[in-house]
Amino acid sequence: MSPNLFADSPGSAGEQVVALLSRPGLRIEKIVSTGQSSPAGFWYDQPEAEWVVVLSGEARLRFEDEVRPRKLGPGDFVDIPAHRRHRVEWTHPDQPTVWLAVHYR
Amino acid sequence: MSPNLFADSPGSAGEQVVALLSRPGLRIEKIVSTGQSSPAGFWYDQPEAEWVVVLSGEARLRFEDEVRPRKLGPGDFVDIPAHRRHRVEWTHPDQPTVWLAVHYR
């Protein structure tokens, strides 16, 4: 049987991050948010780029250089260059938001 | 508005391949199969590795070094090393099979 992206992972209290593939310069992760958001005033400032897609649920992603957050629903994807500051403003509190993130150099 | 993985692409007769991200050593593609399979006797023998997940639909993926094809449904993923010979034996004829493929070096 193949491993499954949508399978529950054990012990998932809080936001869940599961590494699906890890190679030099490449990391594919599944992230499951259940209402979590970035702490107030916090910005991600990542040394690597990240291509990310929402597969289920709903989220709002804010870039520091944009006025309004982007609403992301199933299938919406964004490429985030290294060091482009961003934060997760909101994820749906009542249903899991599943992200697939490809971190790359 | 963010680009969407599940959005229809124009002019999609036959199997559809859409590049979502293209960087040195990394290519993310969406593939939509509607009953297509690899030609008889054909094996993919790729110079790059491929991590691939089925997001909707159903497929059977066969490796030359395995006796039976693997059944893949929504969320099932496989990492295919470079030059591991494989073929798509079947995709569901009545519903689109959406693959997300990450080709990497």
Report a brief summary of the structure.
The structure is a homodimer of 105-residue chains. Chain A has 105 residues and is mainly β.
Explain this structure:
Two copies of one chain form a homodimer. By secondary structure, chain A is mostly beta strands. In chain A, 0% of the residues lie in helices and 48% in strands. The first copy, chain A, is built from no helices and eight strands. Chain A has strands at residues 16-23, 26-33, 49-56, 59-63, 70-72, 77-80, 86-91, 97-104. In chain A, the strands form two sheets. Chain A has a five-stranded antiparallel β-sheet, with no helix packed on it. Chain A has a three-stranded antiparallel β-sheet with strand order 5-4-7, with no helix packed on it. Chain A is globular, with a radius of gyration of 14 Å. The model of chain A has no long low-confidence stretch (mean pLDDT 95). The A-B interface holds A 2-7, 20-21, 23, 25-26, 28, 49, 51, 53, 55, 70, 72, 74-79, 100, 102, 104 and B 2-7, 20-21, 23, 25-26, 28, 49, 51, 53, 55, 70, 72, 74-79, 100, 102, 104.
